[in-house]
Amino acid sequence: MRSVKVRHKSNTAQYVMFIEPNTRGLVRGSLEVICGSMFSGKTEELIRRLKRVRIANQRLLVVKPAIDTRFAKEKIVSHDTNSFISTPIQDPQQIVALAKDSEVVGVDEAQFFDDSIATVCEQLAANGVRVIVAGLDMDFAGTPFGPMPLLMAKADHVTKLHAICVRCGAMANYSYRIAAGEDQVLLGATDSYEPRCRQCYHQP
Ligand code: ZN
Q1: Which of 30, 59, 106, 158 is the most exposed place for a label (fewest CB within 10 A)?
Q2: Which 3 state secondary structure label does DSSP give 55?
Q3: Is the dihedral of CA 42, 43, 48, 54 positive or negative?
C-alpha cells in the first residue's frame, strides 16, 4: 500500500466539515454558528446542513431578516443561486411563535438582527431545538457585526469560513468595500465588496 504524504503549510487553515452529533432519538437542543466574510460560503454551508435536516425528515423552519431583499423575498439565496424557502421576519421574537413545532431552525443573515436574536436562539436551544445561524462576523470596517459576537459566544459550535483574497490569493476574512459610503448595511454583494486578506485589507 502506498502512503500519501500530506503537507500542511503553517499559514493555511484547515476546514473540517461540520458533522452533526448523533443525537437521534434524543431531544438535544444546540446552537451552531456559521460565520465569515462575504463570499466565504456561509449560506452554502447553511443550505448544506438544511438539506441534511430535510433528508432526516425533521421539522424545519428557516428565517431571515426582512431587510435582506437582494433576491427573492421568501428564499435564502446564496451567490451560486442554490436556494431554500425561508420566512422574512422583522423581529427575532417572531421566531418563537413560528418555530412552535420545529425541531430545527435555520437563520440566515443574522448580523442584521438586534441582540435579542441571541436570547431567542438560546431559549430555542434550551427547549430542545437545533438552531443553525449564519451571518457576517465583521462589517466592511472590520468591526464585529451586530449580534454575531454574542451568538458566537453562546454557540455550541462555531464554524468560521474564509473567502479567497482577490488581490493575492491568500485566505481572506475581510469584506473590503469598493463602493463609496459609510452605511454598515449596503446590500448587493458582488459589485460593492471584495474579499481581502488582512494584509491587502489594510494596504489598499
Ligand atoms: Zn491578500
Answers
A1: 59
A2: helix
A3: positive
**Distance from residue 174's CA to the centre of ligand 1 (Å):** 10
For ligand 1, the distance from its centroid to the CA atom of residue 38, given in whole angstroms, is 15
Compute, in angstroms, the gap from residue 36 CA to the centroid of ligand 1. Answer: 16
Number of domains the chain contains: 1
Model pTM?
Answer: 0.84
Report the CATH number that the domain containing residue 132 is assigned in CATH. 3.40.50.300
Range of the domain at 120: 27-163
Tell me which residues are annotated as active site. Answer: 109
Q: pLDDT tens for residues 119-167? A: 999 999 999 999 999 999 999 999 999 999 999 999 999 999 999 999 9
Distance of CA 166 to the CA centre of its chain: 21
At 142, phi and psi to the nearest 5?
A: 80, 15
pLDDT in tens, 12-64: 566 778 888 776 667 689 999 999 999 999 999 999 999 999 889 999 999 99
Confidence (pLDDT) at 39: 93
List b or e across 134-148, with b for residues whose CB sees 16 or more CB atoms inside 10 angstroms: bbbbbbbeeeebbbb
Examine residue 180 and state whether it is found in any structural domain, yes or no: no
